[in-house]
Amino acid sequence: MSSIPEDYQFNQKHLLGLADYSKEDILYVLEQAKTFREILDRPVPKIPTLRDKTIVNLFYENSTRTRLSFELAQKRMGADVVNFSASTSSTKKGESLKDTIRNISSMKIDMVVCRHESPGVPNFLTQCVDASILNAGDGAHEHPTQALLDMFTMQQIHPDLTGKKIAIIGDISHSRVVRSNIMGLVKIGAEVVICGPKTFMPKFIEQMGCTISYNLEETLAWCDIAMALRIQLERQDHTPGLFPSLREYHDLFGIRMEHLEKYPDFKIMHPGPINRGVELESDVADSDRAVILDQVTNGVAVRMAVLYLLSGGNRV
């Protein structure tokens, strides 16, 4: 907490993206998450801090880890939870997003966790309701809680991430995780290299403060932590042919056991879901160099911290 001024106050109402959060905001969330991570290790991992709050999980896009993680975090804190699924809602009858959220808001809710395939939807919701809005992923824009849990997991390996070398490898263009991670990591002082095929590199990405590499070997030799990303085929409908085949991609950019033997220092992360045999060899994903399951556990703690702070909590 030495990087956070003593008179610092967390004044955020929403979590729409890490673009809106300062270095101090990010470090403060991560510091608070340590306490919630300890709570998860208790025999009864529950606290009643949100027992008077009602939270709606508004998911218009498929999700497993993120949705379960948020729901578990909410229930661990005693909140009343309402789960909304677009596939079984009035949206199938033509109801607009605006009408849906206003109808839900009229039921006196305090927070909305939103996941949507279109960028900007969480921001739009702030104009429709007074509740706090948490972005659980909007298109290829941002996924801030995933980036926060990634940084929290990195801190367990390297408590001070200043100057640490973080490599993000894979489908950069279509990933919302990478955008939030670059913004967050650069703000707290880490060095970030993104690595992948040229067809997976967005224009002007270096303006976010990262460096581009097209050479996996050089990247793995350089980094302290390597985060592999899934190839997001579902977001490539309008741009087919970005790479010849999954096999060739794995040969050029997949992390294999031979890399672990050749470069013995870096740790492996992955936001999930993993395509085994594509971005990671199966044995690599299951190796003791991987902290992928730690990311999942830490996700609950980080989301508990975010929910607590946005509900008006200051210090645990």
Topology:
Elements: H1 23-40, E1 54-59, H2 65-76, E2 80-85, H3 97-105, E3 111-116, H4 121-126, E4 132-138, H5 144-157, E5 165-169, H6 176-187, E6 191-195, E7 211-213, H7 216-222, E8 225-228, H8 246-253, H9 257-262, E9 267-269, H10 282-285, H11 292-310
Helix pairs in contact: 1-5, 1-11, 2-11, 5-6, 5-11
Structural key phrases:
316 residues, 11 helices, 2 domains, 9 strands, Rossmann fold, alpha/beta
Description:
By secondary structure, this protein is of the alpha/beta class. The chain folds into two domains: 18-138 and 297-310, Aspartate/ornithine carbamoyltransferase (Rossmann fold); 144-291, Aspartate/ornithine carbamoyltransferase (Rossmann fold), CATH 3.40.50.1370. It has helices at residues 23-40, 65-76, 97-105, 121-126, 144-157, 176-187, 216-222, 246-253, 257-262, 282-285, 292-310; strands at 54-59, 80-85, 111-116, 132-138, 165-169, 191-195, 211-213, 225-228, 267-269. The protein has a five-stranded parallel β-sheet with strand order 7-6-5-8-9, with helices on both faces. A four-stranded parallel β-sheet has the order 2-1-3-4. The protein is globular and about 55 Å long. The relative contact order is 0.16. The mean pLDDT is 91.
